[in-house]
């Protein structure tokens, strides 16, 4: 997906003109808050992606290392990683290849199924993860640390409603 800065975001008046032209009854304030939410999320994600990149990680690499570190014997089948990641096996295979080249994971034949290959977290992979985790939590603290407990509860409730709307939109689009 292309990443734009959206420096020329519309104001309420421009949104009102657009909604009127589209013969929509939506409150322009709702559209404005949607754009504000998108802008804040994209900016936050860019900064978090930078924290990951400085540590030679991507979000997917980090998540795979976390999955492996928490798995029994620090190993999983590629299909299990794909399922946990919500990704295709092909995509995970490419990511595992990169992690193998970095010596963060190794492939081992399964002792239970000769056709299967297990992905095992290496000592270097574990060290990389343990080195990154304090930076990860510091970044999260910087992003969310200004929110009070009550605000976090409100955020949780609001995100729940947004997730409900997302599910509803998906159902609408399945026609």
UniProtKB/TrEMBL annotation:
Residues 30-164 form the HTH marR-type domain. It holds the Pfam family MarR_2. SUPFAM superfamilies: Winged helix' DNA-binding domain (SSF46785). GO terms for molecular function: DNA-binding transcription factor activity. InterPro entries: HTH_MarR-typ, MarR/SlyA-like, WH-like_DNA-bd_sf, WH_DNA-bd_sf. Gene3D superfamilies: Winged helix-like DNA-binding domain superfamily/Winged helix DNA-binding domain. This is Transcriptional regulator. The lineage of its organism: Bacteria, Bacillati, Bacillota, Bacilli, Lactobacillales.
